[in-house]
Amino acid sequence: MTDLEHISHDARRCARLFRLGRDIEGALKMVELIDAALPTFTARPADQQAEWAQVLTAILQCQERQDWIGLADWLEGEFVALCVQ
């Protein structure tokens, strides 16, 4: 499994935690996920880095609002899509 496949898999697992109402565990896993993904995205072209920043901002805004379903949607949808680009 490549790094990006592993990150995508972890993002889906993290989203599942949020959907199950396990927000504390999900938040801890999300920190690990973002730390693991950061080096991959900082090495990409500027337009993809901008997309990453937008998705990350949306995820963090959902977390701030405690919108766990919205956060899970962003992780499973946009975040995973960026990983497979």
Biggest pleated sheet:
none
Order of helices and strands: HHHH
Beta-sheet strand percentage? under 5%
- Unreliable spans are none
> Structural class of the helices, strands and pairings?
mainly alpha
Number of domains: 1
Roughly how much helix do the residues carry, as a percent range? over 70%
Shape: globular
pLDDT averaged over residues: 93
What integer value in Å does the Rg equal?
A: 12 Å
Description:
The protein has 85 residues and is mainly α. It has one domain. It contains four helices and no strands. The protein has helices spanning 3-19, 23-42, 46-65, 68-83. Helix 1 packs antiparallel against helix 2 (23-42) and helix 1 (3-19) runs antiparallel to helix 4 (68-83). The protein is globular and about 35 Å long. The model has no long low-confidence stretch (mean pLDDT 93).
Topology:
Blueprint: H1 3-19, H2 23-42, H3 46-65, H4 68-83
